[in-house]
Amino acid sequence: MNAAREADIIIIGAGFGGLSAAARAVELGLKPLVLEKGGDSDYPCNSRYSGGFVHIALEDPTDPPEKLNQAVTTLTGGTADAAVAKAFTEDGKKVIDWLRGHGVQFIRVGHRPTGHHVMAPPRPAQPGLQWKGRGPDRLLRNLAQWLSDRGCEIILGTRASELKVENGHCVGVIAEQGGATVEFRGKAVIIADGGFQANPDLLKKYICARPDRLHQRNARSGTGDGLMMAEKLGARLVGMDCFYGHPLHGEAFTNDLLWPYPQMDSIAVSGLIVDSTGRRYVDEGMGGTYIANMMARRPDPSDSFVIFDETIWTGPAGDLSAPPAPNPSLKTAKATMHSARTIPELAKLAGLPAETLARTIAEFNAAVAAGTPENLDPPRSLKKGQHVQVKKPYVIEKAPFYAMPMCPGITYTMGGLATDIDTRVLHNSGAIIPGLFAVGSASGGLEGGPGFGYFGGVSKAVISGLRAAECIARENQAAAPARRAG
Ligand SMILES: Cc1cc2nc3c(=O)[nH]c(=O)nc-3n(C[C@H](O)[C@H](O)[C@H](O)COP(=O)(O)OP(=O)(O)OC[C@H]3O[C@@H](n4cnc5c(N)ncnc54)[C@H](O)[C@@H]3O)c2cc1C
After folding, report:
1. pLDDT tens column, 13-38
2. Closest atom, ligand 1, to C-alpha of 261
3. Which residues contact 101 (CB under 8 A, 6 or more apart)?
4. Cβ-count burial of 108 within 10 angstroms (0-12 exposed, 13-18 middle, 19+ buried)?
5. Distance separating alpha carbons of residues 102 and 39, to the nearest angstrom
C-alpha cells in the first residue's frame, strides 16, 4: 500500500450529503477530500435521480421551525429523535438560502407545500428515469466544479471499505481503487454513502424476506458500506426496518418506463388494494410510503393489485402533484391495466378469485358510502393523523373497473447510523465515536415510526452535510490552541 493521502476530512460518497459537507468545509477553511465509488462524472446516486422537491416532512422548509418540528413528530408518530428533529428543522430556511447561493433556482410544482421549492429545471412529466441536466444533476455538477475550482478533489472509482481508528478516534479510511488498496487520513471521516437499499443481504435482515420482489426505485449505489464499517466500531443503528418509497406498477421490474415514475400513490390511496386471494390487507389511507412498506413485509411483496374505477382513473389518477401522473403515463408506458364492465369479468382477467373480490369490494363500498371505512378490517383511515395526506376513499361503482398489478418500490432506507444533532455517530453505549460523522441516507433516527414518516431525502442530506462540516470546523478550532500549546 502506498503512503496515505491526507486531508482535514475524508468524505465517503459524493451525493448531496457528501458534496454539501465538502463545500461547507471549504467555506469554513478546511481541506476535505471526497471518495466516490462511481467511476465517471455521471456516477449514479440517489441525489442525481432525485425529483428535486426540497421539503421538510412534506412542508415548505422556509416555514417556522416549530411548525416543521411538529410535522416531523406527527409523521413519525413521535419516534424521531427529538433533539435531532428540533435542530434539523431549525435549518430549513438556511438550507434553501445555501442552495440558492450554490446556483440552485427553485420553481413551484403543484399546489402542495412539498412543491414550493423544486430544483429547476424540474424533471419532465414523462414516465421513466429522466435525470440528465435536471435540477438535481445540475446541482451535483455545480458543486463538483465549485469544489474543483477550490482545489478539493473528488476521487472517483474509489470504494471505501474500512475505517481507521487510533486511540479511539476515527482517523481515516481504507479504500479499494482499481484493484489496489489505498489509505486516506484525516481529522474526521464523514459517511455519506446513501443508505443500504441496494444491499439484498441487509434488506433481508431488516426489511423484506424477498428483496428480489422489492423494486429498486433508486440508483442502486447505496449498499450499506458505511453502516457495516461503523457497526464494526460499535455504532448504534436505528429505525432499520423502514424505507422511503412508493407503490409502482408491477411491471416496473421489466419495463423501464414504469420506474421511478409514475408513482401509483394517487390510485392506491383512492381505490383498494387486494392480494392474490382477493382480500384487503393494508390501510390504503396511510399513503404511498406506508403501503410500499406493508407490501414489502409480505411473504411475496409483489402479489397485489389495486382495484379502482373510471371515476378514480379520470380523477385522482391524473393528479399532477408528483408528475408524471399515472393517467396518462401508464398508457404511454403500455402497462397492463385489466379493465372490464363487471367485477366477475375483471377478476377473471386479473386471475383473482371472483367471489372473494366481489365481496371485498362490496364491503369496502358499503363502508365508504356509510362513512365508516375506519371500521373495516384492516381499517381504511379517514382522519389526518400519522400521515397528513390522507385522501378520501372512493366507492368503486363506475364502469369500466380496473385491476392493476403493483409492486413496492424502495427509494432509500430511512434507518441507519444514530447521530447527535451535529451528525456525530453514536456508539451503542450512547457516547459519540470521536471523529466519525454520518449524513444523508447513511444516518437514521429522523424518519420512520408506525406511519413510516418521511423527513425529505434532499433536505436531510443537505442539512446534515452542512452540520457535519460546521461541527468539524468547531472541533478543529477548539483543538488548535491545544495543538499550538502542545
Ligand atoms: C427517483 C428518486 C426521486 C427522489 N426524489 C426526491 C425528492 O424529490 N425530494 C427529496 O427530498 N428526496 C428525493 N429522493 C431522495 C433523495 O434524492 C436522497 O435521499 C438524497 O439525495 C440522498 O443523498 P445522499 O448523499 O445521502 O446519498 P446519494 O445521493 O445516494 O449519494 C451517496 C454516494 O455514495 C457513494 N458510495 C456508496 N458507497 C460508497 C463507498 N463504499 N465508497 C465511496 N462511495 C460510496 C455512491 O456511489 C453515491 O454516489 C429521491 C430519490 C430517488 C431515487
Report:
1. 999 999 999 999 999 999 999 999 99
2. 1
3. none
4. exposed
5. 24
Question: For 82, how many CA atoms within 13 A lie in the half-sphere containing its CB?
Answer: 1
Interatomic CA distance for residues 211 and 200, integer angstroms? 6
CB count in 10 Å sphere of residue 299: 9
Residues 202 and 224 sit within 8 Å (Cβ to Cβ): yes
CA 300 remoteness from chain centre: 22
Q: How far is the CA of 338 from the centre of ligand 1 (A)?
A: 35
Cβ–Cβ under 8 Å, residues 197 and 412: yes
pTM: predicted TM-score of the whole model, two decimal places: 0.97
Q: Where are the alpha helices (DSSP H) in 269-376?
A: 288-296, 310-314, 326-332, 343-350, 354-370
**Cβ of residue 99 lying under 6 Å from some atom of ligand 1:** no
Supply the DSSP symbol for 4. Answer: P
Atom of ligand 1 nearest to the CA of 13: 34
Task: Identify the helix (H) or strand (E) that includes residue 113.
Answer: none
- The CA 38 to ligand 1 mean position distance, Å, reads 12
Q: Which of 35, 36, 41, 47 to mutate to test the pocket of ligand 1 (most atoms within 8 A of CB)?
A: 47
**456: Cβ below 6 Å to ligand 1?**
yes
* 111-139 per-position pLDDT tens digit: 889 999 999 999 988 999 999 999 999 99
